[in-house]
Every structure is written in structure tokens, then in C-alpha cells.
Amino acid sequence: MKKTVITAVTLLAAGSAAGAAELTPSMEPELTEESQLEGLPEQANAPDWVPAWERAGEPSVTLQEGPAQRVQMDPRVLEQMDEELEAGIAEGFFPGAVALVAKEGTIVKHDAYGEALRYDAASALLPEAERITAETDTIYDLASLTKTFTSTAAVQLIEAGELALDDEVADYIPEVEDAFTIRQLLTHTSGLPAWIPLAFLEDEQTRWDAIYNTAPQEEPGEAYIYSDLNMILLGQVIEAVSGETLDTYMEEAIFEPLGMEDTMFNPPAALQERIAVTEPQPALDRGLVWGSVHDENAYSLGGAVGHAGLFSTASDLAVFLQALLNGGVYDGERILEADTVREMLTDQTGGDLEQGFGFNVNRDWFMGEFAPTAAGHTGFTGTSFVIDPETNMIAILLTNRVHPTRDGGSINPWRLGLMDAVSDSINAHPANRRGGE
């Protein structure tokens, strides 16, 4: 049966001042070798670009800043993105941003724009002296980029033989009565709805019960529905298998080995001045959300869950992504095997929207010309990344577009604009011009 594609994304809610849970959702458009992942069939129908991931067998690359010309990019073209980002800030689509571009391990662009704090708890513009300028080491709420880390953690456990793709989720979470699998969580094919409101439920246990009791909207395995619930449950499975909380597991298995010192759930208060601010949430009596996860459901579940809650910098995120481009290793520390990375970042669904294990693949609306070979993800707070194995390229855009409100409009033009600037910079270099022009 041909799979149905249901385009649904993280739905975040604004509560009523009366506290009666009046929720208004927002939408974000949002081979032949044996696999390291037990239970994954050989991909005889893999697309032609899959061999691009074989670059991962080359020596591990560590990131360092350097000139664009070193990696055959035209810096003048790349810098055109500066004006576009400044225009987005001036037009009020986001108050600040950090952009990072790397190719073949050389960071050719790493710049900050605008402000990390611009408005007060009443959404009024602050005096200039009270604002905080965005810096290249500003820490951003990654929102749904968290899903790629949760997926990586799950795939680590699968690779280690402690979890299997076709295990049923109920084997690890007995409260779940419906029959869907780890594979279906990873590929958003469990049939579960995109989102359910949790923040106004009575207590945390009631919220977890609501998640466990939510039935699939579609037959598991037959529809693609991008769902926060998939990754929330996957985080719970990781905890059940590892015997650790999700934040502790990720710290020990991903962040610490890769030296990602600025990546964490629930940042300490001491880091607040470095963290980009999001929006006021008076319905939850949170005031201006600053240094705490923006996503209300994640907040109501303690801040460290599988679909949202991670905070990080562009530099740390680049290390994680370069580790993937290296085939799971960075600076001598391996977090995944190369074949596993390739499978994780290859389409697993065969549907109209291609999906790897937790990673979007071939999404031209934010990946641009890199889409056929690229993987990446977006986040509701205004974050995104794209990696491309064919060019060994990383592009990261971090913004706090929900400051002071989530209703400021889509930043997809700037996501795509960054990718267009990167591809144009590559194509404009004399070594890459068609026909030697």
C-alpha cells in the first residue's frame, strides 16, 4: 500500500490569560553492505546519492577556521547573506541570529547578528542599554533539533544491540497499549498525532498518562505524521534501556565525548546572560521565558524530553554535525559506526517526504540545491541545520524568532537564503564553474 503523507509539525500553544487552556497551534513546515543496525534490510533501492556517505571512510576531519578560498568557495558571494540577515532583523522577523558555514572541516563563516535580548516581559522594546547583543557563542533553544540528538542516542543503543528497530514500544513502556515500533518512532510512521496539549493538565503523571493513552490516528507504518509524541516516547525508551535519565545519557554518550560543553538540557541560571531569550508565557505564569525551554509541553514534563529542550551554540552543533559527516567520529572519539550514520541519514520511508532515522532528508524548501544529498532539521524557535556529504558541508542558522512572539512570521526565506548563499559561493569559485568559465 502506498504510504499517505500527512504534513504536520510541532504544534506549540499559547494559553489564555484565564488559564483555561485555550490553545492556538502554530505550524512550521516544519546498498549492498550489511547494516550495523540489526533488523534493517539491505537497501537495494537506495538512491544514487547514497554512496556520497562513503566519504565517511576518509580520515576524520576536525573543524578549524580558515579562508573560503581554501575550500573552493567565493567569500564575496557568501557574505551577501549578511545583508539578508540584517534585513530580517530590521523587518522584525527575528531579533538576532548566528550563522555558521563549514566545508571540508574549514569554518568559512561564523557570524552573529542583532540581539539575543530585545524586549521585556510585556513585549515592549527595551532601551538599547538594557539589550544584549547576539554573539557567536550565544546559546539558543534548539527546539525540534533536539529530535536529531534523541534519534542518535536511540541508534547508538540499537547499534550496541540493546534495542532493536522492530521492537514494540510497549516492550519498554508497558503503559503504551498500541502496537507500534522503535523504527516507526524514528521515522514518524507510528501514526500518532503531531501533538497533544499537556501543559494545562493537572500534574506530570497525568501528562505522561495522556501521552501513553494517545492512540494512533493512522495505521502504524502506513502514514508519515511528523509528531512530537514519537520523540517523547523514544526518549522514554532510551531511559528504560540505558537506566539513565535522557539528559544524563546524552551527556555521557554524545556531548562529553565530542567536547560539547555548551550543550545541555535545563541550563543553569549562571548561563542566563549567554542565552537567547524567547517569549512571555503568562498563561503558564512563566513571564519572559529566558534560559528555560520555550516548548510548553517540554517545560511541563521537566525540560529534558525527546522532542525539545536542548540548548546549544552553533560551534557545538557544528562539532556534532561534523562527527556525522566523518562517519560517527570526531577528534578520535567515536559515537557511531560509519555504516550506521549512512543508514540513519538515508530515506527509510519511500514516501513523498523523505525521512531518515530522526533526520529530514531531501527537503528542498530549506536545503536548497543541496537537497538531493542533504540531511537536516528545523526547530520552531527559529533554528535549523543542513549537512551535505557530497560537498562535506555544514550550514547552521540559529535565531530566537519567537522573541517577543511566535506570531512574527516564518523565517524559511532566511533558512533557504543561507543555503542559496552557500551553493552560490561554491558555484562562483573559478574551480567549480561549469566548462571552466
Automatic annotation (TrEMBL):
Q: Which UniProt keywords apply?
A: Hydrolase, Signal
**Segment forming the signal sequence:** 1-20
Give the Enzyme Commission number: 3.-.-.-
Q: Where is the Beta-lactamase-related domain?
A: 85-412
Major enzyme class: hydrolase
Q: Which domain of life is it from?
A: Bacteria
* Keyword Hydrolase applies: yes
The GO terms describing molecular function are: hydrolase activity
Which protein are we looking at?
A: Serine hydrolase domain-containing protein
Please report the organism this UniProt entry assigns to the protein. Answer: Bacillus daqingensis
